[in-house]
Specification:
mainly alpha, 3-stranded antiparallel beta sheet, 3 strands
Length: about 130
């Protein structure tokens, strides 16, 4: 008498399915991770663009005073309470004043000021400390 065919899944079939799932997940990661990094940079740029005119206005309204901070702008209700104080890498946004210019910046993914990945507005190549 012959045995009925087994209806179970073999180890080989499970390994093949896991390999396919792994390849798909790897492909998604290769595409998604750079897109996520790009989205973080875009968010930081949008944030500094939004903060810049507020910082400029504050500087005009308070001549002779030290450069304002993002925290101070929020405390004085110049920025909405919902405004983010930190960039996508959890580093506080910075405001620097030099001569007649106000710079708003994110230190970027490396979280260090003065490196190539900094995001600043205006981005004219000069930056006061």
């Amino acid at each position: 008498m012959r045995r009925a065919a087994s209806r179970g899944v073999t180890l080989i079939e499970i390994l093949i399915v896991l390999a396919i799932v792994g390849l798909i997940a790897g492909g998604v990661a290769v595409v998604a991770i750079p897109k996520y990094a790009e989205a973080q940079k875009k968010q930081a740029k949008n944030d500094v663009i939004a903060i810049h005119p507020v910082a400029e206005k504050w500087r005009v309204d308070h001549p002779g005073q030290q450069c304002v901070t993002v925290e101070q702008l929020r405390a004085e209700k110049e920025l909405a309470a919902s405004s983010k104080l930190t960039d996508p890498w959890d580093t506080p946004y910075a405001i620097r004043c030099a001569d007649d210019e106000t710079y708003v910046l994110s230190f970027g993914p490396d979280k260090k000021e003065g490196t190539a990945d900094d995001i600043r507005i205006p981005d004219d190549g000069h930056l006061g400390k």
